[in-house]
Amino acid sequence: xxxxxxxxxxxxxxxxxKDMQEAFQKGAASEFSDLDTEILPEKEIDSVLSxxxxxxxxxxxxxxxxxxxxxxxxxxxxxxxxxxxxVKYGTQSHGVGQAIWKEIxxxxxxxxxxxxxxxxxxxxxxxxxxxxCGFHIVEFFNxxxxxxxxxxxxxxxxYFFRFEKKMR
Length: 168
Hints:
Blueprint: E1 3-7, H1 13-29, H2 42-49, E2 54-61, E3 64-72, E4 79-87, H3 96-107, E5 113-119, H4 123-132, E6 136-141, E7 160-166
Parallel strand pairs: 4-5
Antiparallel strand pairs: 1-2, 2-3, 3-4, 5-7, 6-7
């Protein structure tokens, strides 16, 4: 696999967002047959992209954009956050996600802790973060233990896992 992880350019943004939205939508639709909600509105992607310390990366495999990630880097604490990681729908299970993550770790070696969340129903994500990337589940959000940062109308409701990966 001829793989590169590059910064997302302004020209890439339309396709990048569309591909990310499709990957998230198809993942949720595989679990919820009656899904009629947009899983990842463009405004959520834009909100993360506008955060201080946000970096957007695109994965290029054999010259084609096949995925990407958005991370938020806190230069002071080095407690950094993976907000989105996606592999283009139809190209999963070929090592692109792992290649993206390994390259992100190389690009941000000063990181002390990485954090991310995923909905409880995303079994592929749980497997990926724990078994492929070395994260640990450190918290389970549910109606009795709500995540104050999760919108009320998010698909999956109040059920999310929070993961951490300590680097040092």
